[in-house]
Amino acid sequence: MGEDGAHIRLKLDTREPIALSDFVSEFVGIGNQFEKFIARERPELRAESEIYIKEVRSGCIEADLVAWLAPNASGLFSASLSAIDIIDKGQILTKFVEDMGSKLGRYFKRGGRATGVTKSDLLDFMKTTKAIANDPNGSAKLEAATFEDGERKVKATFQFTTPEARRAEDEIARHRKELEATTGDTQRALLRFVRPSVEAGKPGKKGGERGIIESLHHRALPILYVSDMAEQRMLHEKMQLQGNVFRALFDVTLNVEMSSSGRPLAYRITDVHAVLDDDESDLIDPQ
């Protein structure tokens, strides 16, 4: 690696032995995210990486991910490569670990979501937490480090424990479902509730609410909320409503969950925009 070798070190402390597939998944997820990070932040470069096992002892594995950064065909001249290695690589790896920690760290809290991520990103995050989530009492630490005058200097650190990894798995799975629900065609329509909520709805699950959208389907369908935010906004609008909630029309953005045969199954509410109360809804032609 060399004394000027900037690198990323992953340290896994576990109570139980780590399955090889889980260990490999950790680095696959991190490696994928690093390549995406370079493509996004430094498009003039291309990234390659290799894993080196540094130390294995009872309950602990340390491994280094050593990254090579080279110019793209349309990027820098090869003469600049040494400058990239020595001057810039440490800063790039430091920023990557900070970025990774910021995004993945959001899923350690209930309802946490990183912005601008894709389903592919969420799959990488799931791989990164897998080994620790499967251990009864483990932890992982990701470091960006360089060597200065022969001494290893840690520039950025990100770590998490088994409870955090398990929470992340749950929240990541929920976020994937939310993205899947919103990747289909969305539309804006007027929704009318036809009976009260029997139980509090949960994101992605059918609660007691049913509603009808006459422009889409003649029968009432179950109401699903894609996110906690959408559900809370609907609850707020209902509480602010002065008239009869079952006569009001709710201006919403949604997509329709369909069966394999094309039959509408439920309305998935992604956003609530406005409410027309009793008097206003009387002015609207239902046709």
Q: What is the rounded Rg? A: 25 Å
Question: What share of residues are in beta strands?
Answer: 25-35%
In which order are the strands of the major sheet placed? Answer: 2-3-1-4-5
C-alpha end-to-end distance: 72 Å
Shape descriptor reads: elongated
Assembly category: single chain
Percent helix, as a range, is 25-40%
Please give the count of helices.
Answer: 6
Main sheet record:
5 strands, antiparallel
Structure explained in plain terms:
- The protein has 287 residues and is α+β, with helices and mostly antiparallel strands.
- Helix content is 35%, strand content 32%.
- It is built from six helices and ten strands; from the N terminus they run E-H-E-E-H-H-E-E-H-E-E-E-H-E-E-H.
- It has helices at 20-41, 81-105, 119-133, 162-182, 228-240, 278-282; strands spanning 7-13, 45-57, 60-71, 139-148, 151-161, 187-195, 210-212, 221-225, 249-258, 264-276.
- The strands form two sheets. Strands 2-3-1-4-5 form a five-stranded antiparallel β-sheet.
- The longest helix has 25 residues, at 81-105.
